[in-house]
Amino acid sequence: MKRKIQLIIIDYIIFFISYIIALFFRFQTDIIEIQKYILPIMIFPLVMVIVLYFNKIYDYVWRFATLKEIKPIIYSSFLGYIINFFIIEGLRRTLFSNLIIPITVGFITALLGSILIIFSRVWWFSKNNEKNIINVKNNISNNVSKKILIVGAGDAGVELLEEFIKHPLYGKVVGFLDDDESKIGRKIRDVKILGKTSEVMKIVEKYSINEVIIAIPSATSEQLKRIIDNIDTKKVRLKTLPGIFEILNNKVSLGFIRDVNIEDLLGRKEIKVNFDEIKYYITDNKVLVTGAGGSIGSEICRQVAALNPKELLILGRGENSIFNISKELNEKFPNLTITEIIGDITNEHRIKEIFNIFKPDVVFHAAAHKHVPLMEKNPSEAFRVNAYGTYILAKNSIDNNVKRFIYISTDKAINPTSIMGTSKRFGEIIIRALAKQSSTKFGIVRFGNVLGSRGSVIPIFQEQIRKGGPVTVTDPRMKRYFMTIPEAVALVLQAGSFANNGEVFVLNMGEPVLIDKLAREMIKLSGYIPDQDIKIVYTGIRPGEKLYEELFLDSEEFIKTDNERIFILKGNDIIELNQLNKLIEDISKGFKENDFELFNNLIEKYIPEATSKIKKDIAY
After folding, report:
1. What is d(CA 412, CA 423) in angstroms, rounded to the nearest whole number?
2. 3-state secondary structure string across 6-23
């Protein structure tokens, strides 16, 4: 309140002086004429500050003021001028016949007063900012702050600069680097663009830079690698902002800055999605995500939450993972209605109850058993969850008029060599059969490995490197497709907008990567030399694993969609309703009775190209 009173007094004085200046401007040195209009000099400023007060001008924190806060001052000043005109005219007609204010004097007073108030706020900000800078410098040892160089003078780089300006304790931005020649030599917020990215080390040494931050969220892994190859990490610390889909709908902040990791070098494909098409089926709809606590499911939750659904239903079997993703979402999206649901997708009564109560409009089915070696030992669980559980969810979606159902599949469902891949393929067969008899728009999205998911090689290699090795690779020839989780999920959401009648969508994940090369890159990123500091040991292919993954069968044709990274497959494995009912009956019998011979017969009948068979000596 003390601060408000100070500003009100300052503004009153400003309008008082502005009125005097306006009189001299209008009547020059004609004192006799000026005296005729001197009477409103007390009323006019008072009305002006009252209008400013009721327009909440004194509630602003001017330290963070932008043009958005400046405009209301001008509006309020001219509103005050109009109110003054009517008040003074009313007083002249009722009480004071000689109370007159010329229109030009009132107009000049309002204009000049608003300009002076704006200048006073700029001065106020500058004065306090100088104090803050002095305090910051006093708090930094030896009065030396971290010198930062930002690579990328685009929107993200500018937002990052503004964050450092607001929080100078974290360091001072010395300059930018950008490969756009038209920007070099120019300034952003008084910070110069010093040169191209290829000149990074020369500039680091010239300005004694402590930290280089790559602020190009849209950069591909190839572009990042080219930039990183120019940086000697022994001389300067290297940081980056995450990819564009990780920052989705969030303003860049200092909290996003992190170390460069293997996801940056192998992920970050050039991916474009049409958010208008995605919003069309998500915004203002109830969305249910199964497996919401898992790697893929939790990222679906994050990206869906950013698109303003009516309600987000997060379903999972593990209470801890659901608690964690719920806590994160509530912090990031406090106005979003989030409902946590603990349940097993194979529990028919529970799933029916969930659909009857919550009536979701859209379902993303990401819940699954995904670990290949574990499912080799537990085949009945693979079929129970990945096939039968999928049927339970899809059937309830049809019965409750769900608008859209997206099933997350895997490249391991193609020519399956594992029980996990086979069970997911049965999930695809079930969805395609149900799609033929339903108004629900079903879609199946098939893709390969995602970087950083639970059980993937990335965290395993990281742990092995942390312990000093060795890093274990199954076979030097083994290749896998890789994409970051946010990128894969963005394409899943886009594919969901194309879904209609049980189509199988395949994501173009770029070129496959040698796992051996991946291990070596991770060792280098950690500051070690492969085979010298940390050894690489080849352990042999595990049961159910392939050397190379496939994304579609030889018998499947694919057609392009509007998105160059999404293809639609034309398959021939759609079964009739009576076959589907018999298949579901057999799968149910198989996992309830551990009838592995029945499962093997189903595989031979429905997926003849599969080489995976349940081995009774290891199955239980």
Report:
1. 10
2. HHHHHHHHHHHHHHHHHH
